[in-house]
Amino acid sequence: MGTGINPTHRFFAPAKLNLFLHVIGQRGDGYHLLQSVFRLIDFGDTLHLRIRDDGVIERMGDFPGVPEEDDLTLRAARLLQPFAQPGAGVSIGIDKRLPMGGGLGGGSSDAATVLLVLNRLWQLNLSRQRLQALALNLGADVPVFVFGQSAFAEGVGEQLRSVALPPAWYVVLMPPVHVATAAIFAAPELTRTTPALTIAPFSAGDPAPDTAKLHNDLQPVVVARYPQVGEYLAWLGQYAEARMTGSGACVFAAFASEDAANRVLQALPDDMQGFVAQGLDRHPLFEYCDEK
To answer: How far apart are CA 161 and CA 151, in angstroms?
Structure first.
C-alpha cells in the first residue's frame, strides 16, 4: 500500500510492569480509580500481519481459550477498519510468550500493536491521542501501550503522563496460575482507600520516591487466593524487593545490571519459570503515529 513496510513483517508487542498499583477509590459505575507507574520491557509477543484487500479481518492459527469474538487483536483491527479505504483487511498471527492472566498486559499489548501497525499500513495517519481514545474501548491497559512511554497512570488507567525512569533490568517470574482480574477487583477485602499521590513518582518533582510507600493493593488479595504467587514473591524477595505486577500472577524485582539479574535467574529452582528483561523508555513502534 505504498508504506515501504512489508505487510507480512513481524511486529513486537512488549510486556509491561506496574512498578506499583494503588487503588484510591471506586466510581459509581464500579470502575476502580487507580494510580500506577507503567514500564515497558523488552520481552513480549510477536505479531504477524498480512495486509488484505478483500475487507476480511481474520486470525491465523488457533488460540485455545480465546474465542474470536474475545480476541483483542481482531477487535482492534475492526475498530480501525471504518477509518480505512474500502477493502482494507488483515490476517493476524501471534507468537505468544506472555502468559494469560499474568499481569504483564499481553492481550492489551497485542491489541495496541495492531492499532499502531495498521495506523501505518492502512495509511490512516490517526494521531496518538486519537488512537489512545480508541484503545480505551478495548480495555483500560491498552492506551498505555499506544502512549508508548514510561507513564504515571491515573483514573481507570487511561490518564497518562510520561515519567523518566532510571535504567533497570528486571527478573520476572511466572507462577503457573491464571488470575481472574475481575474477581480480584471485586474482592470485598481489597483495599480501595490508599491515599492519592499528589506528585507523580519519578517525575521532575520527585526524582527519588520513597519506594516503601509504594505497593500493589491487589497483591495481598491475590496471594491469599493463589498461594503460589506468595511462594514466588518469597523466593525472589531473597534478592531484592519483590512485587506483583498488575493483578498478577507475575512478580518482579529490579536490578541495576543485566549481570546481577542473570545471576538471580540462574539460581531459580527448576520448578519455577522466569526471564530477565530490560526496561524500555519507548515502545519499539512509537514512531508509527505522531503527536497531532
So the answer is: 5
